[in-house]
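2024-03-11 09:14:02 INFO receiving multi-entity request
2024-03-11 09:14:02 INFO entity count = two
2024-03-11 09:14:03 INFO echoing inputs for audit
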Amino acid sequence: MNEADLAQWFINEIKKCKRPLVFMEVCGTHTMTISRYGLRSVLPDNIRLLSGPGCPVCVTATRDIDMGIAFARIPGLILTTFGDMIRVPGSNSSLLRERVNGRDVRVVYSILEALEIARQNPSRQVVFYSVGFETTAPSTAFGIMEAKTANLKNFSVICIHKTLPNALRVLLDSGEIGINGFLLPGHVSAIIGVRAYDFLAKEYSIGGAVAGFEPNDILSAILTLIRQQQSGPMIENEYRRVVKEAGNEAALKAMQLVFRPCDSEWRGIGVIPGSGLMINADWQEYDALQRFQVDVGEPVEHKGCACGEILRGVKLPDECTMFGTVCTPENPLGPCMVSGEGSCAAYYRYR
Amino acid sequence: MCLGVTARVVKIDGKKADVEFDGVIQTISIAMTPEVKIGEYVMLHAGFAISIIDQQQAEETIEIFMEIKKMMEEEKRHERG
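2024-03-11 09:21:47 INFO inference complete, emitting structure
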C-alpha cells in the first residue's frame, strides 16, 4: 500500500469523529511536518492543531540572546552555535549582526565541531552557545566530557538547555487553553522515554501520543488521541522504531553527571521552576558563565510581537498583527518567524 | 532543532563511527549508543546517534499498515457488494 492510500485511510477515520477536539504539538519538527504537508487543511474543522512551546530557539529568552551577543563581543573570543540561533533578534542586535560587524561567530552542526575549532585555535577562547531540549542536551554533556578527556583549556559552554515536562505542566496549570491531547515529541522522547509524561494522564487526565515525523506518523497519532477520548487518557508510544520505553540510558546518565536542574526563563511563559539545565559544580571550568563576566542589561521586548501568546497556544500566528506584514522570514521581528521550526515561519512558508 | 536523520553505520572506531546517509559518509559519536553494530541504522542528531532504529519495530509498523490495507480492501468490497 502506498503512503497516500494510508494517509487517506487515516483521514477518513479521523473524520468519523464529530466532537470538537484540540490537540497540541510541542515539537518544532512536528510543526514543520504539519505545515509542510498541509495537514491542517485535510483535517475536519472540529479537530484543531495548536503549536506549543516546542521550538527551543523560539523559547530562548531575550535576556539569554543578549547574553550570547555580549559573549560574541569579548575580544578574541570565538562564539560557536547552531545555525538557527544566529538570526534571532535580541534587544538591539543579533549574533548575525555581530558577525557582520567583525565578531567571530561561527555556525556549527554539532558540539563536536566546536571542540575541533578549540583544538585548532589553542590561543583563543572558544565558547559554545548551546540551546535545545533533551534531544540535544546529552550531546552537550558528552562534549563537555570530551573536552575534559582531551584536557582542552580554551573551551566552555553557555548552557541554555531546557527540559520539556515542567513546561507542559505550567501550560496546563495556566488554564489558558483547553487541550484534549498532546502530540509528544519523538526525539525528546528517544532520550527521556515514554513514562516521563505519565503525569499528564494521571494528574491532568490528558493523554498523549509520542509521534514520529512522517505525515502518517502524525495522522496515526491524531487518530490515537481521538480514540483515547473514549478509552481514557494514557501515554502511548507511536514511534517505537526509535523511542524505547525507558529512553536512552547512556544519554540520561551523561546528563545527570554533567548537569543539574535549574529554573529557566522561557520566552512568552516566564520562569519555569526546574525546566532548565545548568553545568554541575564538578564541571564548572567548562561553564562559560563561570569563566567570563559579561554585562547584560534589562532586555527590551519588541512591542506588538505576539510570539509569547503563540508559544502558549493562545494565538495562532496569523492572529498577530505583525504576521506577514512587518514580520516575515526575510525580516523577522520575533523568534517564531526566525527559526524554520517556529510556528510563524512554518505558517508563512506553507500557507 | 530536534530534527534527526536515519543513517547506516559502516565503520566503528571506539566512540566514533562512520555512518552513511544519502550517499555521504560522516563521522559521528556513538557515545549514546555504545552497543550499536555495523550495518545497523541509527537516528542521527547534532553529530550523535541518539537511538538505534529497531528494525523489528519498523517491520511491525509495516505489518500494522498492511493490516489497515486489508481492512480498507474489505471495506471497498463491502461497498461494492
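2024-03-11 09:21:48 INFO post-check: The domain at 1-351 of chain A is CATH 3.40.50.11740 (Rossmann fold).
2024-03-11 09:21:48 INFO post-check: DSSP finds 17 helices and eleven strands in chain A.
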